[in-house]
Amino acid sequence: xxxxxxxxxxxxxxxxxxxxxxxQLLVLKPALLEDVRTVKLTxxxxxxxxATAVTLAPAVPRNQIPEYTIExxxxxxxxxxxxxWQIRAQKAFMYNRSQLVHTRGVVAQLxxxxxxxxxxxxDEGQYLLKNRDLELFGNVKxxxxxxxxxxxxxxxxxxxxxxxxxxxxxEVTGFGSERxxxxxxxxxxxxxxxxxxxxxxxxxSVRFEIEQPAPNPRKTRIxxxxxxxxxxxxxxxxxxxxxxxxxxxxxxxxxTNLFARSRTADLRYGQPGVDASGTKLEFLTLRNDVFxxxxxxxxxxxRYATGGRADFAARSNTFTLREFPQVYQDRDTITGDVxxxxxxxxxxxxxxxxxxxxxxxxxx
Length: 364
Hints:
The protein has 364 residues and is mainly beta. 10% of the residues lie in helices and 54% in strands.
């Protein structure tokens, strides 16, 4: 090889070695902001994600390099001196042009007006600086101040309204244990939680279960279109969508050996109280077009009941029917002003009975 060819080869070898050294430094060490702009690294080199990778946060820019990548990220948001939320994340990526912070491995603390904390864990989060709302994605687990917990694929916190929102396209499940040992669970499509008033709204396809402790253990399942839960007063109100056909517009209640339905239902899972008319509020109240079907414990007999209102007392295991009540058992029909079904004794008590005759089973 002549001296001229050697002189041409030497610069090429030096350039190759320099390029290899630079590549090793960039791969083995975190890139500084100046490095990113100079060598035009790909988004995969900075974030660990290829440009085509799936991310749950829809606002994350594609094929754009974040200006900052931060390990063990912490950030807090406040308004007029009051904390709104703060987050901790394993890693955060900041996009200045989009005014976006994208986080992975997130733990967030949400504050209501009284300073109570709701803690939320999620796989990812995104925070748009312009609207101050926080969105969380993937395996979202929230624990509210009273111990109530929910799980979903998405959650949005609106600090200005002190509310948590989960749209109807996302299924959400929840569970909690009350002070008296009662356990409540639910599943629905969509939820809103007003933190300031401890009010939960389940938006679609609600399935709500309550399990009572000893000495009278019992599980009750309620299905409806919507439900409003007042956590402070431990009251759940079940309703149906007005867009449903009238024949399908019923809240459904199930217990062992019992099925009931009505247009609306109220469930009180705390201490009983009194409504505006002075009537004692029992464990479960069914209103309008009430229908009850029950089998005896030994499955030997079947009883039906109808009326405008039915109150179920959990402690005494009693159904009280009002507003033109009727009870059908075997071939007999019982009517009166008030009919009380004592389920443990398998007996029926009637106030001001005005009929006792052979009748027909009501339509289910």
